[in-house]
Amino acid sequence: MTIQDVKDILEASVLEGGDRMNEEVETACGSDLMSDVLAFVKEKAVLITGLINPHVVRTSEMLDITCIVFSRGKLPSQEILEEAEESGITVLATNMTTYTACGELYMHGLPGSKRRAPAEGA
């Protein structure tokens, strides 16, 4: 799936990286906890989040996340968009909730991470 496909499926707006819409993405993750993103996300992923702060871009850069989608109609600051531009990360915004956006992408064939959390007590 391409970032353009993600944009179309989520009825999203492009806030940064319009020149990278043909890049491929392989998985998706929806989270507002960057510690969970660090634990479960692989490269070439789409991160769907309602968290609007610079840590989202820094975490995405560390993991080679291709695209950040801000959900629930939230819009990042110019500072966040500039960090994303410097990192080569495409930024989209959708009015969908994180849950709905993840479901839409999953229904259209974009899987989540295969990595699972360890069983409690393990």
Describe how the helices and strands are arranged.
Layout (H helix, E strand, L loop, with lengths): L2 H7 L3 E4 L10 E4 L3 H7 L4 E5 L4 H9 L4 E4 L7 H10 L2 E4 L4 H10 L15
Parallel strand pairs: 2-3, 3-4, 4-5
Antiparallel strand pairs: 1-5
Helix pairs in contact: 3-4
Brief description of this entry?
The protein is an alpha/beta fold. It is built from 5 helices and 5 strands, in the order αββαβαβαβα.
How would you describe this structure in keywords?
Udp-n-acetylmuramoylalanyl-d-glutamate--2,6- Diaminopimelate Ligase, Chain: A, domain 1; 122 residues
Shape: globular
Quickly give the CATH architecture.
Answer: 3-Layer(aba) Sandwich
Low-confidence segments, given as residue ranges, are none
Helix and strand element order: HEEHEHEHEH
Beta-strand content bin = 15-25%
Distance between the termini: 35 Å
Number of structural domains: 1
What's the rounded overall pLDDT mean? 91
CATH topology: Udp-n-acetylmuramoylalanyl-d-glutamate--2,6- Diaminopimelate Ligase, Chain: A, domain 1
CATH superfamily: HprK N-terminal domain-like
CATH class bucket: Alpha Beta
Count of runs of 4 or more consecutive helical residues: 5
- Which strand order do you get reading across the main beta sheet? 1-5-4-3-2
Number of strands: 5
Radius of gyration: 13 Å
Strand pairing plus helix content: what structural class?
alpha/beta
Report the major sheet: 5 strands, mixed
Helix content, binned percent: 25-40%
Question: What does the model show?
Answer:
By secondary structure, the chain is an alpha/beta fold. It has a single domain (3-107), classed as HprK N-terminal domain-like (Udp-n-acetylmuramoylalanyl-d-glutamate--2,6- Diaminopimelate Ligase, Chain: A, domain 1, 3-Layer(aba) Sandwich), CATH 3.40.1390. Helix content is 35%, strand content 17%. It has a 5-stranded mixed beta sheet, sandwiched between helices. α3 (54-62) runs parallel beside α4 (78-87). The model has no long low-confidence stretch (mean pLDDT 91).
